[in-house]
């Protein structure tokens, strides 16, 4: 039975061409800074984003957390959306690694009201933590791949400058925002002091993220990567996959976006499913099933027919389109969901 895995774009597998690049990679010891393929990847990423330097790390959580570490001091506070990955999914890492706290601001779209953010910035009084960073996630995972508006980003930067605060971009899926809007990556990047980008989601590499910033920050990041166990040796084998991904797979993201929008339109017509099709902007589709349908049972029935889905809350399903899902598989996914909904509603 064919398995269609829509749980996440992290499930992508390297293509044969990517694997060949990995086999052919020239390698060295990256802890010594001597892996030529890693160095090439870091230089290419920094150039694409218009920054001085970047650093290859194993995971997106590590790239986010090292970024926060180098921007803050113990006892500081950062502001972010209440559904942001760094607050919701990174196991309280800021409190453990950086000894800082997060001030989450609720929003309906990943863009908290600017007045609420400004109100949350702490006065310079000794019994308050110091507000050090405003962090944005683009695209926003829990809001269905929502693209953060570039004008909002500019306003955040102006606000940060007003209060002498740093800005961080969790850009795990910034590639999707770039493809959907046509806004260049270096345009997004110039409004942030640190940026985290991921290679192992929509771009299809097996592992890896990068921290992008100025040289001084990256020098600090190298130390913290080592402390956190992220120092790697002949890792050019993996970096080669990243080079292949950014040169060949960014342009392919448009197909994921198309499949997501077609799929959203199809399921919107099904009984017992509620979806705001206008909220589907990139490769993620979030929909709700009727309250009389058990979410675990629904997911289990889909799995029995070869379709893997994930729940992100009560009666809420997330599906993510990616490189390994073609147009035919998208339509097959709809057929499975339609069949199960009709079966349950009999």
What does this structure look like?
With 346 residues, the chain is an alpha/beta fold. The chain folds into two domains: 4-9 and 252-344, Aspartate Aminotransferase, domain 1; 14-249, Type I PLP-dependent aspartate aminotransferase-like (Major domain) (Aspartate Aminotransferase, domain 2, 3-Layer(aba) Sandwich). Helix content is 42%, strand content 17%. The protein has 14 helices and 13 strands. The protein has helices at 16-24, 36-48, 60-71, 85-88, 93-98, 114-120, 150-162, 174-181, 185-189, 215-227, 236-248, 253-267, 295-304, 327-344, and strands spanning 4-5, 53-57, 77-81, 101-105, 131-137, 166-171, 194-198, 209-213, 273-274, 284-289, 307-308, 310-313, 316-320. A seven-stranded mixed β-sheet has the order 2-8-7-6-5-3-4, sandwiched between helices. Strands 9-10-13-12 form a four-stranded antiparallel β-sheet, with helices on one face. The longest helix is centred in the C-terminal third of the chain and has 18 residues, at 327-344. The mean pLDDT is 96.
How do the helices and strands line up, and which of them pair or pack?
Blueprint: E1 4-5, H1 16-24, H2 36-48, E2 53-57, H3 60-71, E3 77-81, H4 85-88, H5 93-98, E4 101-105, H6 114-120, E5 131-137, H7 150-162, E6 166-171, H8 174-181, H9 185-189, E7 194-198, E8 209-213, H10 215-227, H11 236-248, H12 253-267, E9 273-274, E10 284-289, H13 295-304, E11 307-308, E12 310-313, E13 316-320, H14 327-344
Helix pairs in contact: 1-11, 2-11, 3-10, 12-14
Write a brief caption for the model.
The chain has 346 residues and is an alpha/beta fold. The protein is built from 14 helices and 13 strands.
């Amino acid at each position: 039975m064919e398995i269609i895995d829509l749980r996440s774009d992290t499930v992508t597998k390297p293509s044969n061409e990517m694997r060949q690049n990995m086999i052919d990679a020239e390698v060295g010891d990256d802890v010594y800074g001597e892996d030529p393929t890693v160095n090439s990847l870091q230089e290419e990423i920094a150039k694409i984003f218009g920054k001085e330097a970047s650093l290859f790390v194993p995971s997106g959580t590590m790239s986010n957390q090292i970024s926060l570490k180098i921007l803050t001091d113990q006892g500081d506070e950062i502001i972010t959306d209440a559904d942001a990955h760094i607050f919701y999914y990174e196991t309280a890492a800021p409190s453990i690694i950086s000894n800082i706290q997060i001030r989450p601001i609720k929003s309906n779209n990943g863009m908290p009201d600017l007045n609420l953010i400004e109100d949350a910035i702490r006065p310079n009084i000794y019994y308050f933590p110091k507000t050090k960073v405003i962090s944005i996630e683009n695209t926003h995972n829990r809001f269905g791949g929502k693209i953060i508006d570039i004008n909002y980003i500019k306003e955040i930067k102006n606000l940060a400058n007003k209060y002498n605060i740093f800005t961080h971009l969790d850009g795990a899926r910034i590639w999707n925002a770039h493809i959907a809007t046509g806004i260049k990556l270096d345009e997004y990047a110039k409004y942030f002091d640190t940026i985290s980008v991921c290679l192992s989601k929509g771009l299809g590499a097996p592992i890896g993220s990068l921290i992008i910033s100025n040289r001084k920050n990256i020098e600090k990041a190298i130390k913290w990567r080592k402390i956190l166990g992220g120092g790697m040796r002949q890792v050019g084998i993996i970096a080669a996959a990243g080079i292949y991904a950014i040169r060949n797979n960014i342009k392919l993201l448009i197909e994921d976006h198309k499949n997501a929008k077609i799929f959203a339109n199809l399921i919107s017509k099904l009984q017992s499913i509620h979806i705001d099709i206008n909220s589907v902007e990139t490769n993620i589709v979030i929909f709700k099933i009727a309250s009389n349908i058990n979410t675990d049972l629904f997911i289990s029935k889909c799995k029995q027919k070869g379709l893997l889905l994930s729940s992100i809350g009560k009666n809420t399903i997330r599906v993510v389109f990616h490189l390994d899902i073609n147009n035919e598989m998208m339509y097959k996914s709809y057929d499975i969901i339609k069949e199960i909904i009709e079966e349950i509603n009999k």
